[in-house]
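Supplementary Text 2. Reproducibility record for the structural model of the 292-residue chain.

All settings were left at their defaults, and a single model was retained for analysis rather than an ensemble. We include the record here because the model underlies the residue-level annotations in Supplementary Table 4.
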Amino acid sequence: MWMQFLAGLVGVFALTVPASAEPDWQAVAKALGKEGALQQGGVYRVGLPRTDLKVKLDSVDLKPGFALGSWLAFMPRGDEVMVMGDLVLTGDEVNPVMEKFLENGIEITALHNHLLRAEPATMYMHVSAHGDPVKLAAMLHDGLQLSGTPLGPNPPTSPTSLDLDTGALDSALGFKGKANGAVYQFSIPRAEPVKEDGMIVPEGMGSAIGINFQPTVGGKAAITGDLVLAASEVNPVLRALRMNGIEVTAVHNHMLDDEPRMFFMHFWANDDAQRLAKGLRAALDKIAIKKS
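Retained model, structure tokens:
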């Protein structure tokens, strides 16, 4: 009888304590000035491609989705959210945006290059914060307004054909890619979860390996992206890339309290697409990734 009474109390308590409500993502989009999309795992991700920038590297005109794709991702955490992001900025935008973010309590977790020789040069600012989703979105909007980052609705896009043998790329890498306009993209998760501040960081918030192919001419493609690496993987992967003619352009952190500690290796090449895919596969073989 006593156990039944306790079970009844637990049931009443569960009914009287409301579950955390799903954030009002429409209100978040309004405060930020840009709509996003809900992804697997409850992550609300907002793409902020720098379509205003015309960046060239080694005579290749870089597509926004290839190497100029700012983003912010919100994930519920109790009654609050955690937001993380990677923002593409020009040199003269960095300090005004940083100052406004710091004023609003947005943490800067990294600032660095991803590419070499790009004209104009771009920097990449990683940000993080916890709190009310709408208030955070408004604070992020205040900072973004000090850059040329396009806000508002995305302009209509016309269908684009990919001049790439995507099946051969899938076969070489061992994963299925996805077309994003004129760019073919791979998102490859690591075998073990990555945590930030004790919470698992989903793929949509930057814990997955990203590889982008942009077709150039004559069966060639430019490649870039970031490989998410444990410390012991950094130099084996670096050697594998260099042995396959792929330039390593940066090695650095994106987060501050990640467990295990992760390093992000950025790369670049413009060569035969299938040859590059095989070179990237040689690098992936040095990394603890999930089996496809």
